[in-house]
Amino acid sequence: MLQIFSSVMDGLLIGLVYGLAAIGLTLIFGVMDVVNLAHGSIIALGMFFLYLFFGAGLHPYLSLVPVAILGFFFGVIVYLIAVKRIISGPPLMSLLSTFSVSMIIIGIGTALWSTSPYNINFKVETYNILGYTVTSARLIAAVAAVLVTFGLYFFLYRTVLGKAVRAVANNREAAELMGIPSQQILAISFGIGTMLAMLSGALIATLFPFTILSGGVYELKSFVASVLGGLGNPTGALLGGIILGLIEGSVAPFIQISWTNVIEFVIFVLILLFFPTGLFGGRK
Amino acid sequence: MKFLKSPFFWIVIAVSLLYAVYPKLGNNITLRETLVLSAIYVILATNLNLMIGYTGYVNFGSIVFFGLGGYLTLWLIGGYGWNLYAAVLFAGVVTSLLTLALGFGILRLRGAYFALATIGVNEAVKDFVSNFDKWGGSEGIFLPFSTYKSMGGAVHALWTVYFLIIGVMALSLLLSWFIKRSKFGLGLFAIREDEDAAIVLGVKAPVYKAIAYSVSAFLPAVAGGLYFFKNGSIVPEEAFNLHLSIESIVMVMLGGQGTVTGPWVGAFLYERLRGLLLTTPSLSNFHLVIAGVLLLLIILFAPGGLMGWLYKRWARVRGVLE
Amino acid sequence: MKKGWLLLLLVGILGIAQAQTVKIGLTVSKTGKYNVESVNQLNGIKLWQQWINGQGGIPVGGKKYKVELKYYDDESKAERVQQLYSRLISQDKVDFLISPYSSGLTAKAAIISEQYGKVMVATGAASDSIFKLGYENVYQIYTPASRYLTSTVDMLKAADPSLKKIAVVYEDSKFAKAVATSAREYAKKAGFDVVLFEGYPKSTTDFGPIINKIKASGAQALVGGGHYADGATFARQLFEQKVPLKMIALLVAPASDEFAELGDAAFGVVAPSQWEPLVKYQQTCGPSPAQFTEMYQKAYGKVPAYRAAGGFAAGLILQKAMMEAGSIDSAKVRAALDKMDLTIFFGKIKFSTDPKSHGLQLGHEMVQIQWQKKDGKLVKEIVWPTNAKTSDLIYPIR
Q1: Tell me: the pLDDT tens digits for C89-100?
Q2: Domain C12-143+278-357 in CATH: superfamily?
Q3: What is the DSSP letter of C393?
Q4: Which of A196, B187, C75, C173 falls 20 to 30 Å from A281 in CA-CA distance?
């Protein structure tokens, strides 16, 4: 019983962080129909940005702020260089252009940091609640993921800029006719998506060791989570992340752990086939 | 026998013969091993082009065919003592049939959704095989050395495999060429341009797509069988290496999607480029960056690839190099 | 008689004057996932080259052969290995081969070396299965996977005969799975109750689910692990989750010096190691463990890891076989390797000559290290076998 409770709790906590990563991916898709294949490498970059600030003496949780700001501007630059020109082309073009960005990031990252693992070494408390053991880092990462998500919703629904983003997502031409500068909105959306990916990477870096190649795993998880929730739907992506975390936690007591990935990807393909708009409806 | 009059047919035959004969004449093993890699790239890119270039469906997980073919082949040879020819043919047919069945399902998805699903299929198969004890799980399958002895010794066996791979390369190019000139090919191009319009005009799009998908699996599966037989072993992460699938897309784009010559030239150039970047010490740290920048430039400024550029400059090239 | 001496002298002089060389080829993973381990191994091989060339070369049949090394970068990738080993044999015309790092790459290279009947000494490759495929020219330096954790089990039994429940948790990779499978069999035979036997995927960073399983199984000791990154993470999370284990033995990771960066999480963790600088083997030829360590430190400014020692050992074994054979002919050197039974600074070396497992290492044994605290600092101590230990095993750790 305790084991199942622990598994569910662990799954929930890590699932929130997966969810945050997936929101970054799904937001970009929702606004501009681009599947960002640089997502994983951007997550990894978030890990290393945190590492740099941490190395400069900043507390890891304080470092999240500069990581977020860097993430936003990085995303805007990527958009202007690699996405803007082909945004109206066939999907292959945007898939490949974002993939080439990923190759460039990983290439430079490998040259700078090699492919060996890095760690954020800071003091972590361990709490024991009725036999369930949990670390402060995991709790804080989950809470931070929730706070960032709230922040995003506040932005999207309570600010003029956020409403413009939603308008462009709904219908770009109509939004332009209403006088919304769609190119700027697209750049900002890409920036926010990238910022969320980097933040999730930075949070993961406080939990686990990482290499410049680590992003690949979380990119695949983001795909699964956002497809579960319906591509383009941020709430769905968060829920998708939680479901993913719960699957990882809760199937573990009953099967060999190494089968978890098989289950995840089979679910992924099945959902795509039978519920292409996800479990919670497609984009808003 | 109209094709016998086409210069392109003879170009394919001549180049393949050159591939086969040149290393054998000088008994140059190093060249042979380099050309094997180059030929495998050509096979992967050319068959992938049937989906990306002809049908307009972006298959991101095409490497699953290659890996599955390799696994089936080594399993039949190592476990049941099949001979190589029977094993690779069987592997090719089985992979093709599985792909056909899968195709009717996932080809209902379009655009990015299809691309994501193909990634999912490759990862699911990889993780499944890593857990599948009959195929050695994560340890993979290793062929005993005596397998090569029954083929007249390892030296002889590896030359035979080399010729077979070159043969598969020639077949891939010819297949791609025949399809392009056939009515079937025309149907595929119609789907690429506008699927809904094609259906209205009477193209049985679901069947056409599924057949194209299945055909694009056959020769890569055979090539996978031959390649991993040559290696003597197979493990999941080498067999289902998603990265190689994406590299194949790069080759197709580099040469020019939708043409026959494009993927061929793209694959050849890509192998050369990679080799050059890796063996030049000052560049080897940045080979990924350089390849990435190159890809980005092609997509942004020359989406038709090398062939697109050639056709624009010299329209007459189109008559010779399809 | 006098004439004979003169002739020998003449041959000797000519031999020196001609400056014979023997070419040894290999690939090194200068880039890619094996970069660190493989370059370490190369450093060991290069040190051997300097050492023997400093003595004028390898004395073979009255002549002295200088060693020439020829190596390329294989990028840690299988597809490059066969290409490059073919090149080494057919174009560079090397006389002998040393394997790449890792069992996976070695298996690919072995096909090529067998094809041409070239002797290949395999270091950095601990797989058993490669040596059960019927190869005749490949020789293993490392203790194979099947015996990697068996002495750990012996040590645990000696430390606490009353302990029964152990968990075997391994990375789902070729090497770790082979090690874990033999460890489970061995532990069962030794009377342990293996309450959990489970693999985790290679890219695992979140060990939460598996740690919950270990807790639920009631295991009192844990053996397993895989490679560096996963092992370090596993150890850290076991510590954070306060899993009540009396002994934790992990593959590979704790044997590296970087493991100390884990701080308190590293304390008490046991690891099997192929070699440690402090071992006390009575070598019958070549440098002593201490001499090797000193040479290495002088050359590279750091303490040698076991992979570097393995590289030096590979060279030394080839050298010894050439000397015994009195020739650099492949067939004669192969015969010498088959007969070899000696102890060097790396430990005992003896190869299987059974056609079913030809070349498999039979002589070499693992040592067990444990991270202990000395004056508040984490240090690696050898705790097993008892005749080589530098400190007593700390047991139980929690």
Answers
A1: 888 899 999 999
A2: Response regulator (3.40.50.2300)
A3: P
A4: A196
